[in-house]
Amino acid sequence: MDATGSPDNKLILVLCGMPARGKTYIARKVTRYLKWIGFQPKLFNVGNYRRFLYGTDISPTFFDEENADGMEARARCRKVALEDMANFLRTEGNVAIFDGTLTTGEKRRDLKETLNQLLPGVYVLWLESVCTDEALIRMNIEAISKAPDFVGKSCEEAYENYSRRISSYEATYQTLSPKVDGVDASFVRLINFGHEVEVYNVNGYIQSKIVSYVMNLNPIRRPIYFSRHGQSEYNKENRVGGDSDLTESGVKYAEMLNLFFQQEVRSGELKHFDKSSIRMFTSTLVRAVHTTSKIKLGVKPMSLKILDEINTGLCDGLTYDEIREKYPLVDKERKEDKLRYRYPRGESYLDIIHRIEPVIFEIERCRGPVIVIAHQGILRCLYAYFAKFDIPEIPHIDIPLHNVYKMIPDAYDVCLLYTSPSPRDRQKSRMPSSA
Q1: Set 99, 264, 308, 357: catalytic member
Q2: Active-site residue flag, 229
Q3: Sheet strands (E) in 57-176
Q4: pTM over 0.70
């Protein structure tokens, strides 16, 4: 057995459940997370296959369980998606995410039988998103109204259309259970986005990682802000590591950062939230703590050791010229593979990714705004997660001093913006993304 728990190093995560329960949101998030921690995942959305094969202008009756032609067409979409997924697992990746409805035990058993024929022995983990909260369901439907199926339709038309689609499944819907899906099935039932979680017969490293991750997800639209600390003395001297305080320029930036957030409270994204819902995180290093102390939102920042800058080990406090002179091999090997290179007695970027994983979980769990004041290496890794950068790109992402990075996640993507708190330099535009 390996990290996936599968004898041939393959795992399939199958999302199922009623429409408008956040399945696609969860599927996209899990795909992004697995990619960020080093797996090779790919998402196979049955709806995309249906749109490709049959177009987007489809009547709600297409999804009626009594519509034989519709049932046959949807079965064809699943079959093509499964064949593509099997080919992907045979030739490229190690984790596939299958996003469909599969609202009956019969459909799930048929899918499992097909998978056993295509990929004998593959580990299948089922994940059902259950929503009993009507407000959550309505929010999901409103988010789906922006999907390709409803381009050119009003929100009211999209809502009515999708509500009828949901009704088509209600009469035959069967939730995941050992009785319906077999005592050997492995599954997770996520109820109202983590308010309640049922885990059954789940084994394996990556399976456990997925369960821990999805327990923290929520679909609430809220802003997330990243900023490096203000310029430090070591920044000015081009030194790595250390625990120096802010320069005069760094202090001015921290003060402008406070004004920026005050403006966000008055007329920006923060005006939609109570201040008590805001979470602020920073590192334990002086330059970050000093910067954060200038932000007067009535929020007590949480200083986390795991947000400290990359540990530069024996090179701590040296300039880059001094590193080249004193440790020429360090300079050479780090340039060759900046992602994996670990400073002598220090860390690599891969080490940082694993170190800050709990921060990702915390940000995803928060239902209000999040502010993170940290360091270049840390923010490169955090930003890469949200902007879907490939891991090798992480050490080269540009995160300059004295800028704010604002992200607003929604059901289908993340709106990425950046701005400068300085009125002279302020701009508002979409941030660079790998997507």
Answers
A1: 99
A2: yes
A3: 95-99, 123-130
A4: yes
